[in-house]
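Query structure, 347 tokens:
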């Protein structure tokens, strides 16, 4: 359930009074604790909440942080009837969601997304988890939150890079939806954003995700659409992590979209002019991820761990048109290398 808030404190109070719980926990990261928590602090039930603060950024979306959260909840008397509020970006909602899914075999949680990315994507739809063994979201569970409280006020303090990062997932949703939404997203001035317009676009973007998740919550089929750009994007993200120069998830997704639209044009008939327009938008707003032919082996190996794969075959989500999905599209190693050649030379 997504609740669009005009007054987040009163919406949160109403929600909390409708839920049955014994202890309340509030999970933040070191940044959201300082810049976002003040926006909800006057919500009266929060005065009773046990606060858990973890490190900020994706390097903390790991098992050590998860242990810290489990330990804090256990030591403060958490039970299966406790409730966790995740206040933060996708790192907090993914890790907090998984902590809630696993503590005492599962407790209730509420997501309050504070980045653009977590509003339109991470906080919605029930995918929770952590990075492990150098791989993105390697360990996790599907578990839906009780509610997602969306308040775009939080975006006021978000830096430009994280805004761009979230926008990449919005562009992905637009590519999945239709030509009107795609064109609207390519003409939006991301360097000088119109926040009022963005607010409407956020709601449209969430609607795309909610609609797909409602039809296939556990990614048996249709939900693989939401992974467009991610077979390659996650490989780039893991490679950057291994190089100890992490990149924001949305940037990796944008670069992955550029690659996978090329593959779509090559294999499933996606129109070349639309591929070029989208790739140009990505180049202008996200730059390029530096790779050489020497990285191909590592990138390919990361792709072999993608969760859409079956029996050793690497599966991509491709498009034959904006809004027309080709799920479970295979690509041979030579085709993947050709895609990476295009990326190195064309981007
Ligand atoms: N579960 C899903 O369906 C799903 C979907 C997309 C992405 N993800 C995951 O989400 C994560 C990325 O999420 P993210 O982009 O939100 O990153 P993030 O949570 O790391 O937040 C980015 C940075 O912004 C700071 N921040 C958060 N809110 C802020 C605010 N309002 N003002 C100022 N700073 C703020 C954070 O402290 C952090 O430093 C990745 O781990 C990705 O794998 C999950
Ligand atoms: O909600 C989904 O489904 C997605 O795939 C959304 C993605 O944007 C997100 O990055 C997700 O965490 C990726 O999941 P994974 O299963 O590929 O790890
Ligand atoms: Zn993503």
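Result returned for the query:
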């Amino acid at each position: 359930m997504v609740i669009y808030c005009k007054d987040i404190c009163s919406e949160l109070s109403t929600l909390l009074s409708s839920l049955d719980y014994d202890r309340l926990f509030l999970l933040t990261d070191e940044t959201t604790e300082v810049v976002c928590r003040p926006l909800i602090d006057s919500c009266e039930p929060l005065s009773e909440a046990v606060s858990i603060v973890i490190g900020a950024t994706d390097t903390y979306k790991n098992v050590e942080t998860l242990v810290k959260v489990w330990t804090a909840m256990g030591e403060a008397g958490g039970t299966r009837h406790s409730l966790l509020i995740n206040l933060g970006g996708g790192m907090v909602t993914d890790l907090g969601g998984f902590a809630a899914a696993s503590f005492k075999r599962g407790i209730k949680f509420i997501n309050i997304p504070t980045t653009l990315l977590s509003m339109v994507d991470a906080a919605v739809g029930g995918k929770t988890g952590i990075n492990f063994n150098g791989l993105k979201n390697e360990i996790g569970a599907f578990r839906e939150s009780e509610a997602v409280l969306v308040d775009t006020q939080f975006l006021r303090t978000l830096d430009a890079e994280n805004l761009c990062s979230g926008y990449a997932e919005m562009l992905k949703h637009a590519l999945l939806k239709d030509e009107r939404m795609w064109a609207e997203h390519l003409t939006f001035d991301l360097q000088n954003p119109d926040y009022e317009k963005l607010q409407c676009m956020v709601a449209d973007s969430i609607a795309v995700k909610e609609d797909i998740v409602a039809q296939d919550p556990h990614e048996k089929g249709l939900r693989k659409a939401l992974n467009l750009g991610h077979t390659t994007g996650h490989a780039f993200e893991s490679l950057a992590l291994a190089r100890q120069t992490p990149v924001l998830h949305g940037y990796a997704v944008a670069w992955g979209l550029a690659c996978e639209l090329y593959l779509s044009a090559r294999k499933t008939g996606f129109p070349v002019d639309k591929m070029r327009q989208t790739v140009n938008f990505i180049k202008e707003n996200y730059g390029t991820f530096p790779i050489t032919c020497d990285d191909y082996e590592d990138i390919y190996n990361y792709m072999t761990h993608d969760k859409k794969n079956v029996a050793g075959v690497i599966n991509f989500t491709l498009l034959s048109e904006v809004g027309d999905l080709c799920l479970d599209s295979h690509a041979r190693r030579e085709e993947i290398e050709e895609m990476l050649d295009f990326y190195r030379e064309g981007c």
